C-alpha cells in the first residue's frame, strides 16, 4: 500500500509533460531568433555610425530591411520572442517559492502586472522613437 501511495504522489507532481512538436521547436529557436535580432540591430547601429559620412549606408540598411526574406525572419523572431515572453511570465509565479503565490488569483495578478509593465515600457519607447 505504501509503494502505491508513493507512485500516486510521483504521478501527481510529475512535470515531464510531453509538449507538442511545434512548441518544442519554438523553445529551441529562441536563441537563434535572439541572435538574429541582435545581428540586425548591430548592422543598423554600424550603418547609423557610418551614416555621418554619407546617406548610402542608411539606405543600404533600409533596403536590407525591405527584403522579403528579412521581413519573414523578423516576423518569425517577433513571434518567437512573444511566445518566450508568455512562457516566462507564466512560469514566474511557479518559480518563486512564496506564500503569496500559492493562490491562483495572486499568480494572475503578478502575470497581469508583468504585462502592464511590458506594455507601458514598450509604449514609452515607441513614443520616444516617434518624437
Give a quick precis of the structure.
The chain has 5 helices and no strands. It is mainly α and 131 residues long.
Strand content of the residues, in percent? under 5%
Helix content: over 70%
**What string, H for helix and E for strand, traces the elements in order?**
HHHHH
Q: How many individual β-strands?
A: 0
Sequence stretches where pLDDT stays below 50 over 5 or more residues: none
Q: How much is the radius of gyration in Å?
A: 22 Å
Q: Label the overall shape.
A: flat
Main sheet summary: none
User: What is the number of helices?
Assistant: 5
Structural class: mainly alpha
Number of domains: 2
Oligomeric nature of the chains? single chain
Mean pLDDT comes to 80
Distance between the termini: 70 Å
Descriptive overview:
The chain is an all-alpha fold and 131 residues long. The protein has two domains: 67 residues; 36 residues. It is 82% helix and 0% strand. The protein contains five helices and no strands. Helix 2 runs antiparallel to helix 3 and helix 2 packs across helix 4. The radius of gyration is 22 Å and the shape is flat. The mean pLDDT is 80.
Amino acid at each position: 500500500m505504501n509503494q502505491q501511495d508513493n507512485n500516486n504522489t510521483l504521478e501527481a507532481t510529475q512535470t515531464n509533460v510531453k509538449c507538442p512538436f511545434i512548441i518544442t521547436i519554438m523553445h529551441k529557436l529562441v536563441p537563434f531568433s535572439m541572435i538574429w535580432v541582435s545581428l540586425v540591430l548591430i548592422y543598423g547601429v554600424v550603418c547609423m555610425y557610418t551614416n555621418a559620412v554619407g546617406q548610402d549606408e542608411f539606405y543600404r540598411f533600409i533596403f536590407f530591411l525591405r527584403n522579403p526574406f528579412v521581413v519573414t525572419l523578423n516576423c518569425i523572431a517577433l513571434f518567437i520572442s512573444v511566445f518566450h515572453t508568455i512562457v516566462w511570465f507564466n512560469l514566474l509565479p511557479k518559480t518563486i517559492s512564496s506564500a503569496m503565490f500559492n493562490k491562483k488569483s495572486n499568480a494572475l495578478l503578478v502575470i497581469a502586472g508583468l504585462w502592464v509593465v511590458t506594455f507601458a515600457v514598450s509604449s514609452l519607447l515607441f513614443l520616444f522613437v516617434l518624437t
